[in-house]
Amino acid sequence: MALRDIAGQEKALRIMFGMLRRSRVPSAMLLSGDTGIGKRLAAVNYAKAVNCLGPADFDCCDACASCRKIDAGMHPDVSITFPEKDEIKIDAVRRLEESLYLTPLEGVKKIAIVDDADAMNLNAANAFLKTLEEPPDDSLIILVSSNPDRLPDTIRSRCVAIRFYPLSREAFRKVVSGSVAPERIEYVSRLSMGRPGLALAGDLQKDMDWFTAVLDDMVREGSKEAWTDKETMRTWLDMAFVYLRDIMVFRITGNESDMLYEKGNRNFPKKIEIRSILDTYKSLQKVKGLLDFNLNKSITWNYVSNMMKTVIG
Length: 313
Description:
Blueprint: H1 10-21, E1 28-32, H2 39-51, H3 65-72, E2 78-81, H4 90-100, E3 110-114, H5 122-133, E4 139-145, H6 153-156, E5 160-163, H7 169-176, H8 182-191, H9 196-201, H10 204-219, H11 230-253, H12 274-289, H13 297-312
Parallel strand pairs: 1-4, 1-5, 2-3, 3-4
């Protein structure tokens, strides 16, 4: 795959290609947007374009030794840092810095990609800021984040910010074609809200059924054990956004055929205020953005439970 092959992100690609064409690749970039819409894929393919041995129209050839090594995670000048146990610690930042300050062995630039960059703890973020303030020559840092507001302003201000957005139905179809049955693509596109990574990562229908069962426990003040870790909490919140969207549609149209979830009537309240639905949606987004701060599961469950009860009655 080349950078140009990333579907549905025309605006972001226009900015990225513009920098390549003008030979003005910055020292640091921040790719932000929802989970599962192609940010990390774009970061990797941008690294390929920068260090490609045979670029075509400022894009990578996707065939040379450099491109193949980057795809395989074996290029000596390109590294990717991931969170460990939902956190990026100072040791990981120090390893990244040591790599960046070395002279490129094979490529044009030393490139460090930091996935889920907002997972940096305070010490890691402070150490990383020093690297951004005085970046090594011939280096490029690409931060990837679904929650950029969690990054310190001092870090965000030193990066060229590029926003990614959920895909259109046409772009979504292009990405998932061959992995999702044709008759299910439309439904999966709506249920995932234009995020193919989410659609391809698991069974959305199964996740939605699980969400509903857990919601029933919340309403009945049952067991809190369904939230076993941060990932299950994050999955539940993703499904909650779909559920709230359905309540909103039903509140406005009264028509179940416009809903995303296929289980039919869930006895949605008809008199709930739209403002209450929107406020709940925004509050749950804040909760999701704080998950990596080790929220107390029991307190978070009670907080979310009370919000949902005000919406569904």
